[in-house]
Amino acid sequence: MKVCVLVLGLALVLTVCVARSPYQAVLQHSRIRGRQQGPNVCAMQQLKGTNKKYFTNCKQWYHRKVCGKPTVITYECCPGYEKIPGERGCPAALPLVNIYNTLGVVGASTTQMYSERAKLKDEIEGPGSFTFFAPSNEAWAALPTEILDALVSNVNIELLNALHYHMVNRRLTSEELRHGSSFTSMYQDFHVHIHHYSNGIVTVNCARLIKPDQHATNGIVHVVDRVITAISNNVNTFIEIDEDLETLRTAMAAAGMAAMLENEGQYTIFAPTNEAFEKIPPETLNRILGDPVALRDLLNYHILKHIQCAESIVSGTPMETLQGTVLEVGCDGDQMTLNGKAIITKKDQLGTNGVIHYINELLIPDSAKVLLELAEGSSVSTATKLFVEAGLTPHLTGSEALTMLAPLNDAFLPSGLAIQELENRGNLDMSPEMRQLMTNHILKEQLSSSSLYHGQELETLGGLRLRVFVYRNNVCIENACIAAHDKKGRYATMFTVDKVLTPPTGTVMDVLKAHDRFSLLVGAIQTAGMTELLNQQGALTFFAPTNDAFSAMSQPELNKLMRNRQQLEAVLRYHLGVGILVSGGVSSHTRVQPLQGEKLELGVRNYTVYVNKVPVADADLMATNGVVHAVNSIIRPLPPKVDREQADGPAAPLRSASSSVADSKSFRNDDLFQKVVRSRSSRTMNKSQ
Fold first, then answer.
1. DSSP per-residue codes, 267-333
2. Which residue among 274, 365, 419, 517 is the one 20 to 30 A from 321 at the CA level?
3. Tens digit of pLDDT for each residue in 637-674?
4. CB 535 within 8 Å of CB 509
């Protein structure tokens, strides 16, 4: 029975927690953080150098920052409580008084004074059940002088109307101030608009409630951080009447979006001013204005699907736009930011169906850009300049369906340092080979990386066909692996890749013959009768021993190996993996099945690929039937009880001196390696019988 009661009690607690509003959750967190100071104490975070305070949530508490600025922790009585001299914390509940007297207690004495001047005192002292969104003293002081003078000079009408607009003729606690709700005010039935955000901030007409739930005998007071004004126009009307938004108005009409902004909704519009449009190159702006699809995407990129008041932002948050992608909406001190830039010049112009924030820079989404615009200002600037130098600008600015493979700037270093330096000086000698290479970095169709599949072939503008390799950790096109999310433009897409593409130039045998460092290996392949294997169609990964690998052997050992064709073939086949594995496809504990013997174990450490603990000296020499990775040591099977976690790095700690000496004499003394050789020899003998 006790268990049942406990379970029911726990369920009730969980239900209460789930039903709690975001503000109440944050308030509870502040109470928990302040409880060491005594009962009913709340921890607050105050922005250094300002009077702005916030009930603290868990994230803010540990970061000690609001809008990127440092905070100090202060401790105050939680709403509804007060201190008693000589006692810890805030043990006493505030005595309930009427709204007029409550205004004086909660830091809204200026509102109290204006209420008396406007003959509102009797009303808020008398019977009733009111909600008063009372501007703080600082809120009144922040009003422009001419507005405040106009209100005070006509206290019987203007000031009274203004105060009545801050009132609702019913009691509304923070729990009842639900997100997106609106309530009829006591001024000509104009509505006040409530937004209750997931971070615990509550706003009325975008003014933040800084002291909610101050109870009174005849209602409740919520202290707010600004004086609010009546709202009668929708957001489209704002755009229609403001000359500063003339270009935006024209663009909205051309895109047929004006009617949408007249409908009911909860929009946030980051409205580009005329100045913002003037900053865009005329050819870019004219292209977008003349393209209904791009124009609609551009405008929708400036509109959020919900109302986001400036005071609700305490840190950067990605928010979805009508265009379908996200904007990083954040703040830096008092400034609201977009994608990290403080470009908002006027905040919180509230309409009946949304809010407008004015911005002085135009936001152009990727979906409205051509290839050249996608690449500009990104981490592929070197490749972009090379594309231009190669005479590919018409493709980068046109309406062809293309995909550009754009190597990161780091892909040109250190081997391409000289190219980059020349290019930076503006005198890059664009050779026919370089022009052809850049042409082969552009594919003839617009692709999405998510639609690529293993074995797919893609045609380049230069006429080559490139292969797609899909690995567990990467998607690669030849040796170049996709290093960032796609940038999908109006007509074309940009893939950012980690390497400069090296298209295949021949078979594996052709690749080996083209490099002098493989001359001994080429001779060994011919001796072993494997030339045809490396020339025929297929998919091989060759960990190719260089001349240095053979030179590390003693001359007698090398001579003996070269005279034993079966043993030589077994050794070479152990270096040949089934399938094509480029370096970008190697992750921890990657295994490759060789043509003969046990699996090869690969890994990566400090950007170097290791195969059975042997470092790859030069990776990704692409061939039409495979890939070649140069190694400067003969690869041996790993010992039976090796710690596999060390397979992706340097050799394990040295064993006894005698065993090390024995290993260093020659690989023919390695038992496992002899098993590979004997296995191959046995199969050959069986075939001959």
1. EEEEEE-HHHHHTS-HHHHHHHHT-HHHHHHHHHTTEESS---GGG-SS-EEEEBTTSSEEEEEEET
2. 274
3. 988 754 544 444 444 333 332 333 333 333 333 443 44
4. yes
